């Protein structure tokens, strides 16, 4: 059970069109994890929500970027730059002197969603067992690696990473090197 509920094909097509033409300019998850006991109540009394945070990137890469609904640069903008701007929050960019809060995407990573592998307190999701293409290679918070995909040796050993960074419509490929203690060493960016 979730609010809003999953909709029919026409509604899905309208949302995809709105994402493609920019009518929808931000993408976010309403990650609403609930313990199994909260979801096992009668339908009307059961808590609303499904796991969204851990499945968002693989689903968006596989279902929006891969088929060409939006390109990777637009996805990055809609997930980072646009929400930060809308909420008047710092972030959504990669610049010297700013916090290195970075999600490193792996667009070709094979991902199978599985309830058993979720780190959330909840296991309820409608995507269990889906085979997707694209995922998260690593997550950095404040320049420190807090998650590295176990199947990506380059990320796991901290050699070199590439991250698409979106600033408005301009996208730059930035190569970051991890230092010995996991800190991100960002090169000087030219204009």
Helix content: 10-25%
> Strand content of the residues, in percent?
15-25%
Rg value:
18 Å
Topology, number of strands = 6
The biggest beta sheet is recorded as:
3 strands, antiparallel
Uncertain segments: 153-175, 186-191
Mean pLDDT: 75
**Order of strands in the sheet with the most strands?**
1-2-3
**Helix and strand sequence:** HHHHEEEHEEE
The dominant shape is: globular
How many helices in DSSP terms? 5
Which structural class is indicated by helix and strand composition? alpha+beta
The separation of the N and C termini measures 48 Å
Notes on the protein architecture:
By secondary structure, the protein is an alpha+beta fold. The chain is 24% helix and 24% strand. The strands form two sheets. The chain has a three-stranded antiparallel beta sheet, covered by helices on one side. A hairpin with a 2-residue loop joins strand 2 and strand 3. The N and C termini lie far apart (48 Å). The C terminus is likely disordered.
